[in-house]
Specification:
heterotrimer; A mainly alpha; B mainly alpha; C mainly alpha; B: about 0% strand; C: Four Helix Bundle (Hemerythrin (Met), subunit A); 2 domains; 6 helices; about 0% strand
Chain lengths: ~500, ~100, ~170
Amino acid sequence: MSQFYTSTDHFVLVPAIMLALFGCAVLLFDFFLFPEPRQRKRLVWFLFAGEIFTAAGLWRQQAFLASEGLPEITAFQGTLTVDGFSLFFNWIFVAVSLLVAIVSWRYLEIEGEHHGEYYGLILLAQCGMYFLATGTDLITLFIGLELMALCFYVMVGFLRERKRSNEAAMKYLLLGAFSSGLMVYGFSVMYGLAGSTKLRAVAAAIASRDAWDPVVFLAMATTAVGVLFKVSAAPFHMWAPDAYEGAPTTVTAFLAVGSKAASFAFLMRIFLGPLETARPAWEPLLVLVAVLSLTIGNLAAITQNNVKRLLAYSSISHAGYILLGLIAGNATGLKGMAVYILVYAFMTLGAFLVVVALRRENLIGEDIEDMAGLMHRSPGYAVLMLIFLLSLAGIPPTAGFIGKYYIFLALLETSHYLLAALAALYVAVAIYYYFRIVRSMFISEAVAAPPLESTVGLRVALAVTGVLTLAIGVYPEPFLRLAQTSLVR
Amino acid sequence: MLHPITNAHFLVLSAALLLIGTIGVLTRRNMVVILMSIELILNAVNINLVTFSRHFGDVHGQIFAIFVITVAAAETAVGLGILIALFRNRETVLADEVDLLKW
Amino acid sequence: MADTILFYIFAAFVLGGGVLTVTRRNSVHSALWLIVSLLGTAGLFLLRQAEFLFAVQIILYIGGVVLLILFVVMLVNLDETARLRQFNKAWWVALACAVVVGIEIWYVLNRGLETLEPGEAPQTAATIEGNTERLADVLFSEYLLPFEIASLLLLVAIVGSVVMAKKRI
């Protein structure tokens, strides 16, 4: 019998071990060391330490790949694969978890639900994301996805006293479980095709068949429904507006960014791995989904008055843009996807952080009217929000422009002119509804309202996201190189 | 008249069960019944996996099925926890609100 | 021959139980029919020589999951919901979707099944070790990693359900 826990296995697993270890440590210490609610914010330091160790593990992997000139390291007999792709996404997860964690404690205190479990769940969710980005085995991907999803179901319902939060969690769980049931049905058919759960074997089995083979189509269609649900692409988006609105805003930010990036990593692993040869079959399907996402996301956002709900619809439309990169499918398109996901992560996170700042004692502050006259009350926040909104709309010199630029470039290179025209049209629509917020902030009369809540963590996180959103837009080269490394697979 | 049972029989059965579960999820309003419909879907998956496992003469499919059962149990536990939280917050026990009114 | 008859009996359990699960008005009845469906599935596992899964299905699924569901149904007292409309307004849309998907799956299976069976896979020679032993061998070597992740998953499930269901944490 072969040795089943080699040093390579350990090397690849270190970041996940660290995340799990510190996740469990937070759960334990919360109970033993910090019984007082006021002390709980110290748990952020544990999370911080956990992320540092995780980052160190990732850094060693990256250095090893670079020094040996290897494209990838596989471990556990092909169950995990560390490559540029997995590292790229894992760096995003580390950044996002950290930024979310440092803004959370004050917000949760105001909501009256500041519990240590929150930080444990963030770390364990990130552990699930690690396996989503790194896994190359159907079982591992499935378990990783469920680990992440379960953490999110709980976090979405974290405001246990609020009916809205409960309902959001319930709805998210029911639809999430349903979609992952369909997805795992697809996985079972893939296993039936290959006789193995390794993606590589599945890819070989599917490649040996016709692209329109009905069994491959069945596996592809059911898997696609599950995956597209997770990235909240229309018509599988019904959960997103409710879950985003009902969840605590910090969780909404984590859900909109972390979960979405992880799900896109998963989507790319599946569609560019085993299903690559079935492209003729899934391309029309994805075109339909992308067009629907752009349409529903952008048109439904126009009428929203709740900022979180508006951003939810806008994130549906962003999922559509990212899918366009996959449809184009050339090197530019895949690079565009990576850049777009990176850019999306920071600008969306930033926009949600401003909403976090708007939450004060006795004031929920989620409606567009709550931002009225923000420029006169808190000009710093208003300007930051303006930057994030410009970026979300894709206006230069912000990061969002770079993301959209590569997607459009890829579409033009592969002669998808109609899709490019449609996507450009929806940029105009998007500008309209983002400017509703801007108008409210800069033109509307200031209303008497208490000043915005601000903590050190929130200021740091806003500064980081704001600076990155501008930096990627003004000087994109290093970030493009980073995205380029993600293509190494 | 009776044919010997092939893998095809099992796969058709599992597809039918998947269909029943899907219809249940999409049409019922009662959350508990939706959870049960999801269990039906996961059972369809397990029938598939066990059939393929036998077909290939290995146990990988059965192991996959064990993981599916684990996930089903975990999802149900969390789902029911959320259900209890939802129910507790409803002081006016309007049964109508227990159901998800809109998707 | 006996296999064939058993298959049809179990299949009737599975499908009949499934249909009744999704159509019963009373959640408790639904749960009881779910047990019937799960028992049928367990029987099918036995027909496919998955003895260990047969046991897991009965102990864990029926004994654990369905019992949990029954507990909660009684705890939250869904009696009043039984008198309400059971299907949502969009049921015909859902039904249409399901019918389309059903036809598609049927078609796929009809056309695709012969391609799915590339000659009977080599039957492994009857080994002395039983099904459980073989499972354990593979589970704890090749699938050690997912096994460990599953432990995290269960931890999250425990923590999550406590966080959700407990009044004060």
